[in-house]
Amino acid sequence: MSDTPLEIDCWDVGQGDCTVIKLPSAKLLIIDVGPRGSPLVDWLNERRHEPIRIEAIVLTHNDADHAGALPSIIMEHKSRIEGIWMLLDREVNAPHFQKIFRSALEGEHGGFYRIRRVENGQTLWEDETRQSRLHVIYPGFSQNIQATDPNETSGVIVLESGENRLVAWPGDLELRTASAVLASKPPWILIGPHHGGPSDYPTKAVRKRQSTDDLRNRMVELRAAVEALRASRAYISVGTKNRYHHPRPGYLRLLASQGARVVCSQLTFCCERERVHYNAHVLQGSALLGLGPARTGTSCRGSMRLFLRDGKLIPDEFDLVHIERVSELLRPQCLRGAGWSRGNPLPNFTA
Ligand SMILES: [Zn+2]
Ligand SMILES: [Zn+2]
Fold first, then answer.
1. pLDDT tens digit sequence for 313-344
2. Sheet containing 304-309: which strands, arranged edge to edge?
3. Chain-wide mean pLDDT for the chain?
4. Strand spans (E) along the chain
């Protein structure tokens, strides 16, 4: 395996998802680009004269919080892009789909790249020795065609090295589906799904409406789903004042009870109102890593960087600082997971 590590940056984009992976070739592979106003757009604009090449932009689905920044990126940077991967997640003629698709099409017509469909079995990247790879494991063609809403057909992308599955990006899939797709080989790090508010995790309102039996059954299923996922860590990319009440504290607790360490990009009301109110950042991961800051929200972990070297994932050096700061919060939802308690930072985070 080559000495150059893979650099995986989970960006703080507010409410939305965006991961920028720097490949050993120095080209970028981007999984979701975040919403309109995504810091990725500013970051690329500021580096207009640098020789940045984007090997691929992969959209898990075309919802605005994952794909909204695509039109701006295509408009300004299509000549730097070598491939776009997307899928059909709503009616072909739906205005929202057309908006994303047409902007992608502009670069294809210009001869800059080809658009390909996100579908299981596809390899997005593989290192020379075929040790490490990024590939798509969901959806299959039939699953994509039969899905009744965009989240249901979210692509699932995984980073694997040798026999190990290191990171999984299940987009906005339901928790039970994500678990079924990933359970045969659980990932070390799980992104989301759905900003910590998987749509099959009942909201307070739904809990009230549901019969006790239904609710109990659902909770048993969700617990089994998280158990099967066995993630050591979850990165929840979430916006401070999002309208959807993401993340659901119950889901974070479930992850933590199964041994996962939970890290959120931004601080939300479920952690602390005061700091949100005064926009007092816990840790500005983006600034520390030289990435663009999110235009909205109060960062908790902010952006997070992981390195893949010799088949092992190594987190950036700001984890411990973040834990220390989180312990000052009133109701820290972050890092409730195994091994951590107030004043007892974890000595080692390496996978
Ligand atoms: Zn979505
Ligand atoms: Zn989303």
1. 999 999 888 888 887 877 777 665 544 555 55
2. 114-117, 83-86, 54-58, 28-33, 18-22, 6-10, 304-309, 312-315
3. 91
4. 6-10, 18-22, 28-33, 54-58, 83-86, 114-117, 123-126, 132-138, 156-161, 164-169, 189-191, 233-236, 261-264, 304-309, 312-315
- Ligand 2 centroid–CA 194 distance in Å is 5
Nearest ligand by distance to the CA of 169: 2
**Domains in the chain: ranges and CATH:** 6-326 (3.60.15.10)
Of the chain, the percentage scoring pLDDT greater than 70 comes to 94
- The ligand minimizing its distance to the Cα of 192 is 2
345 alpha carbon – ligand 2 mean position (Å): 31
Q: Which CA distances in Å does 227 have to 125, 160, 165, 167, 180?
A: 29, 20, 16, 17, 11
Q: Is 177 helix (H, G, I), strand (E, B) or coil?
A: helix
How far, in Å, are 205, 234, 318, 343, 345 from residue 325 at the CA level? 33, 18, 11, 10, 11
CA of 16 to the centre of ligand 1 (A): 9
Tokens encoding 222 = 């969700």
